[in-house]
Design goal:
With about 140 residues, this protein is mainly alpha-helical. Helix content is about 60%, strand content about 10%. Strand 1 (about 90-95) and strand 2 (about 100-105) form a beta hairpin. The longest helix is centred in the N-terminal third of the chain and has 51 residues, at about 1-50.
Length: about 140
């Protein structure tokens, strides 16, 4: 009887230890995955800042600084390549103007590239949530 008690107790302890180890491993792996995602997002945001610069955002203030269609096309292609290299879904910049958020430049989807469709200047970001305005 005592032997059966110790075997069952040992089995229960083994199951509990495995459950705890599995939980630790899950949260540790999840944390590492989120850290890698954060690093890619930070790299994308930093590269976006230096590749686009302030020119596009200043167009609201100075109409003489408008980029040509070719310059906007080249910038969109560069952002798309950067987005692909960093394995991100998309990259874009926004400007707040007259209470709305507007895209200044964005990476292109595969469909937009194939159709050679480039978003127009300063499209309104219609799905902006409250958090988007505080960033």
């Amino acid at each position: 009887m005592a032997r059966q008690y110790w075997l069952s107790t040992g089995g229960v302890l083994l199951v509990l230890m495995l459950a705890m180890l599995s939980g630790y491993h899950y949260y540790e792996s999840r944390g590492q995955a989120l850290k890698k995602i954060d690093q890619r997002l930070f790299a994308g945001a930093t590269a976006l800042r230096y590749s686009v610069g302030d020119t596009l955002h200043n167009q609201w203030l100075n109409p003489q600084s408008l980029l040509s269609e070719q310059q906007r096309h080249d910038a969109a292609i560069r952002l798309t390549q950067l987005c692909n290299d960093l394995k991100l879904k998309d990259l874009y910049t926004l400007v707040k103007h007259d209470g709305g958020l507007y895209f200044t430049i964005s990476s292109l989807t595969a469909e937009e590239l194939a159709a050679e469709h480039y978003p127009s200047d300063f499209e309104l970001y219609e799905n902006a949530g409250p958090d988007d305005y505080t960033a």
